Amino acid sequence: MATVSVYNMEGNEVGSMDLNDAIFGVEVNEHLVHMAVVQQLANNRQGTQKAKTRSEVRGGGRKPWRQKGTGHARQGSTRAPQWTGGGTVFAPVPRDYSFKLNRKEKKAALKSALTTRVQENKFIVLDDLKLDEIKTKKFVEVMNNLKVQKALVVLNDMDTNVIASAKNIPTVKTAQTNEVNVFDVLKYDTVVVTKAAVQKIEEVYA
């Protein structure tokens, strides 16, 4: 069972916490992690791109010149792909890029990602994270105390002061326990989690 230090908002170590090996100490499955990231990126694609083929471009009904005798290559329409203003050969059409990943596979991928962060010592547990007011400067101080710059901050509940304070920091993202995903865990260098959030994650995913 992995044991991690617990810090306060001043960056001082105030205790330790044992992590559940069923979540934070699993065998890392790189294939599932890769599939989970690909699925999330694919599901985020709009798939609304569209270009017209030669059958959809307006005009081009008249043959530009007669078939023989001009010295030019034969042409049937001014809307063929080789003409300026012509259609696109293999034009993209609207489509759905999303695909399904089983629930067990998603869980296993997230556990693998969290395990990786723990093994790399990039998993920081805070005893609590509370701000009296919406103050970005104060939130930056907390991150500096923890010596963290690019971080995913996981909260146990909807703390509007913390969320709003971190909103304008481009290298920080806040999320609740039910919003944690593989892509964000891997995208940000460090995962900062409150003690209550760790307990909630262990309850849900154990």
Evaluate the radius of gyration. Answer: 27 Å
**Alpha-carbon distance between the two ends:** 14 Å
| Strand residue percentage | 5-15%
By DSSP, the count of extended strands is 6
How many helix segments?
A: 7
Task: Show unreliable segments.
Answer: none
User: Can you tell me the overall shape?
Assistant: elongated
Q: Roughly what is the average pLDDT, rounded to an integer?
A: 92
In percent, how helical is the residue content?
A: 25-40%
Alpha-beta content class: alpha/beta
Sheet with the most strands, sense and barrel status: 6 strands, mixed
- Give the neighbour order of strands across the main sheet: 2-1-3-6-4-5
SSE sequence, one letter per element: EEHHHEHEHEHEH
Observed structural traits:
206 residues; alpha/beta; 15% strand
Question: Overview of this structure, please?
Answer:
The chain is of the alpha/beta class and 206 residues long. The protein is 34% helix and 15% strand. The chain has helices at 21-24, 30-44, 103-119, 136-145, 160-166, 182-187, 195-205; strands spanning 3-7, 13-18, 123-126, 151-155, 172-176, 190-194. A six-stranded mixed beta sheet has the order 2-1-3-6-4-5. A hairpin with a 5-residue loop joins strand 1 and strand 2 (13-18). Helix 2 crosses helix 3 and helix 4 crosses helix 5. The chain is elongated. The mean pLDDT is 92.
Briefly summarize what is shown.
The chain is 34% helix and 15% strand.
What's the helix and strand layout?
Elements (H helix, E strand, L loop, with lengths): L2 E5 L5 E6 L2 H4 L5 H15 L58 H17 L3 E4 L9 H10 L5 E5 L4 H7 L5 E5 L5 H6 L2 E5 H11 L1
Parallel strand pairs: 1-3, 3-6, 4-5, 4-6
Antiparallel strand pairs: 1-2
